[in-house]
Amino acid sequence: MPEAAPSTPAPVSTEPRKRRKQHGGTKLVQRQSALLRLSSTIVEAQDEREICERVVNGLHDPALGYQLLALFMLTESGGERVLRASAGWEKGPAYSAGASSGTRLEVPLKVADRAFGVLVVESSEPDAFDGSDVEIINAAVNQASIAIARARLLVSERQRADEQKALLDTMADLSSERELSKLLQAALERAVRLLAVTGGELAIYDEEKEELVIVASHNIGMDSTGVRLKLGEGAMGIVAESHEPLIVPNYQEWSGRPSKYSETPVRSVMAAPLLIGNRLVGAIASVDSDPAREFGPADLRLLNLFTSQAAIAIQNARLYTEAQRQKQYFEAVVLYSPVAIVTLGLNGVITSLNPAFEKLFGYSPADAVGRELDQLLNTDETLAQASQYTAQATHEIARGIGKRRRRDGSFVDVELAGVPVIVDGERVGIMALYHDVTDLLRANEKAEAASNAKSRFLANMSHELRTPLNAIIGYSEILQEEAEESGNSGSVADLQKIHSAGKHLLALINDVLDLSKIEAGKMEIFPETFSVGTIVEEVATTVMPMLARNSNTLRISCPADIGTMHSDVIKVRQILLNLLSNACKFTERGAIVLEVTRETRAGAAAMVFRVTDSGIGMTEPQMAKLFEAFTQAEASTTRTYGGTGLGLAITRKFCQMLNGDVTVSSERGKGSVFTVSLPPAIE
Question: FRET label pair with 475: which of 139, 308, 411, 545, CA 20 to 30 Å apart?
Answer without folding.
Answer: 545
